[in-house]
Amino acid sequence: YGPAGFSLRTPGGSDEKFIGTGVSLNGNYEISNGLNASINYTRIFAGNFIKATGTSADIDLLDVTLQLKF
Fold first, then answer.
1. With left for phi above 0 and alpha for psi between -120 and 50, is residue 35 left, alpha or beta?
2. pTM of the full predicted structure?
3. First and final CA of the chain: distance in angstroms?
4. Of the candidates 17, 69, 25, 3, which has an alpha carbon nearest to the alpha carbon of residue 47?
5. Is the pLDDT reported for residue 7 higher than 80?
6. Please, what sign has the CA dihedral across residues 45, 51, 53, 59?
7. In angstroms, rounded to a whole number, what is the distance separating the alpha carbons of residues 49 and 54?
């Protein structure tokens, strides 16, 4: 799915069913009382359906978050 939520691939493009595999690493750190940081890294490996129906590069995602509680 794209950022707006619409489908990027149609189901009729292939008989393959395996979309892919994802691996995530997550970390959290309390900087001070009420201030937390988190980092998440995800690697998504394209499966046979993605490879058979268009661009099939693996995807890396990185998310860094600061949370302030008051």
1. beta
2. 0.71
3. 36
4. 17
5. no
6. positive
7. 9
| C-alpha distances in Å from residue 24, one per residue of 2, 20, 29, 31, 38 | 20, 13, 17, 22, 13
Taking only the tens place, the pLDDT of each residue in 8-54 is 777 777 888 888 999 999 999 999 999 999 999 999 999 998 888 88
Closest CA to 58 of 7, 10, 12, 20: 20
Specify whether the CB–CB gap between 66 and 42 falls below 8 A.
no
Kindly state the helix (H) or strand (E) to which residue 52 belongs, with its residue range: helix 48-52
> What is the rounded distance in angstroms from the CA atom of residue 45 to the CA atom of residue 38?
23
| Residue entry with tokens 């201030």 | 35
